[in-house]
What we know:
- This protein is mainly α.
- It has a domain at 12-39.
- It is 28% helix and 0% strand.
- The radius of gyration is 36 Å and the shape is elongated.
- The protein starts with 14 loop residues before the first helix and ends in a 44-residue tail after the last helix.
Amino acid sequence: MPNDIEIPRFPRLPGRRRLLILLLAVATAITIVLTLIYPPGGVKRTRPSGPPVCAQGVTEDCVGGKAMVIMPAPAASATSR
């Protein structure tokens, strides 16, 4: 019968080799996580300062300043005939 072909099984890795692979995988994962948390080169992260608050008499380029708004002309009323 053609289906009686015996396929050889892949040999099982020795225990020391499996332990080595496991340790290398864990070390690689830890290295990747630490590199993401603490990037190389000492990147300094600072909080951005907020926009400046308006001083007395200043009205532009600060929080609380006035904004120029262009209003459309009022439409002709529909009630006038």
